Amino acid sequence: MAIYYTYQHASAWKAANERGYLFGDPNFGIFQDENYAYHRPAYDWLAGQYEQRTGISLHGNYPVWLSDARPDVGRSGYLEPGEPGVVLTVELPDAHVLELEAGYWNFAMNRWFLTFEDREAKDEKELKESWEKMFDRDWCESIVEAYPGTNTKYHYLVDRIDVGHVLDVVTFTEAIG
User: Fold this and answer.
1) 44, 63, 157, 163: least surrounded by Cβ within 10 Å?
2) Total Cβ atoms within 10 A of residue 31
3) Measuring CA to CA, which residue among 50, 48, 61, 51 is closest to residue 21?
């Protein structure tokens, strides 16, 4: 068991309290905004990776994103301006949590080939296989050693958060401009 943090829409947290758990509800996903709809294939790929690597079904939903550091919601950029949210402090079983290097997630979201070689992916299969490196901590750390100007920042995914695993709830309202 370890402690993690996640920020969520207040309405998602309200629904979680009613059902007894929070999950990656596609209705609250960023691709509900047409400006971000092009990210859906990356999130679908990520959901498949979660299921494959943990053996836990998401039942057609998305994983919940976590951090090992409390989000600084005072700096904004978490939700839409003026939108109410919550920061949850949770304690979760290790077997349900999948770690990934957050900076390399951008490669999947933008369909970039994750390599430090000067070439393009040969095909779709090689492209998607390159993204799998974001789950390999040893590979991520070796890049920091090889390229000292880089760093790592890990985030975590979980299938759901049972309300009983929530240790603390802090409400906030997203800053307006």
Assistant:
1) 44
2) 17
3) 61
Calpha distance 166→160 (Å, rounded)? 11
Q: Please give the Cα distance from 80 to 95 (Å, whole number).
A: 32
Question: Is the entire prediction scored with pTM above 0.85?
Answer: yes
Q: Are 148 and 87 in contact (CB under 8 A)?
A: no
For 151-166, give one letter per residue: b (16+ CB within 10 A) or e.
Answer: eeebbbbbbbbebebb
Number of domains comprising the chain: 1
| Residue 11 belongs to domain spanning | 2-173
pLDDT tens per residue, the chain (177 residues)? Answer: 999 999 999 999 999 999 999 999 877 766 667 777 788 899 999 999 999 999 999 999 999 999 999 998 878 777 888 889 999 999 999 999 999 999 999 999 999 999 988 899 999 999 999 999 999 999 999 998 888 888 899 999 999 999 999 999 999 998 886
